[in-house]
Design brief:
- By secondary structure, this protein is of the alpha/beta class.
- Helix content is about 50%, strand content about 15%.
- Helix 1 packs antiparallel against helix 11 and helix 8 packs antiparallel against helix 9.
- The protein is elongated and about 120 Å long.
- The relative contact order is 0.13.
Amino acid sequence: MTSEGKTTRSILLSHWLIVLLGIPIWYFTTYVPRHSLPSERVEAWNTRRPCFLNALERKDGGCGAETTNGGNPAKDRRVLPYSKDVELVFSLLNEDSSVGGGIMDWDVNLALRDQILPVLSALEPLHNFSIETQISYYAPLSIQPIFDQEEQNWMVEEEDLKAFVNSAEWNLASTSATSKLHFILFAPSPRHRPLTIKGRKASSFITPQWGGVALYNPPSSATLSPSDLAHPFSLFASQLSILLGVPSLSSSTSMFSSVHLSSLLRDRTYENIDSSLVALQGVLDLTRRITNMPISIEVQADFTSALDALDNVMKATTEKEQLKFSAEAREVANRAFFNPKMVSMLYFPDEHKYAVITPFLGPLATYLLAATFKAVKAWRKEKKEKIKIE
């Protein structure tokens, strides 16, 4: 056996040794942890969901007779998803006060006291409210009103209402995690007065899950008194009740009875439970469909905590406790669904990893296999020659 052949085989052996040692290192560094999830508990809850509303009403945790609409209350898509903390932002926006005729100030505190605070007081068992007010002296429209010759006023088309709110230029965008509802008192510039909504008697509208807008064609006064604000803020009170899931709520607390409150608590509880189960089922579907998606210990803990909170809903003795546990379940279920590690895997599947590695490993593997084949062939040849010599 020549020294050259020994050297070649030693080099090849060292290469193969590196490969064999690298395989377990590669495996453990690219291993995707997948902790188990209690899918059977989610399936059990999905089975119970159609009769859950009836169980809430009976307060005995049982299904009993079937409920109307499959136990699923009709959902108003205008209603803001439930959140314990809600921030209300009341804004006075002038289209362009530089041309004159703008509203420079408003006596908003009295309007809030008389029209809004009674509603907030009635809804206090469900939400913690905070209020912010602001005035803007330049809030240009992103749409062009149409002048009606017959009515002698400016009008906004019904289909243009979706684009009426110009959040970017009106400085209404927010990065806060707190749920917000905006209420805008919009004063058009003198060249667009009076401004109304075509085909509507009311000069106000609701943007689903965002807030409400009221058009106000101001008098000559540059300051709005409480009497000037009475009608717009009564509209805001009505819009607020609709956006928070109580369409029948009046600005007067005498209209908000214990029956209203009980019904609202149950509706919000069911909404939270429904949203929680959708998120939990979504986690299960994703992990089953994407086999390389990690299931970290944090996701497992949030998933289990959400189910425990749902179980506590059925054990709760009061409607307020049921709402509290259902809100907790919704929060942790959404946290499990939107876990950053899980979401990132949606954009980095195995195919991408192979596409990155193959250009490097392909040529190396070709060289190593060819060299190994050549070395084995030379070794067999040397062995045959040695046998002949002997």
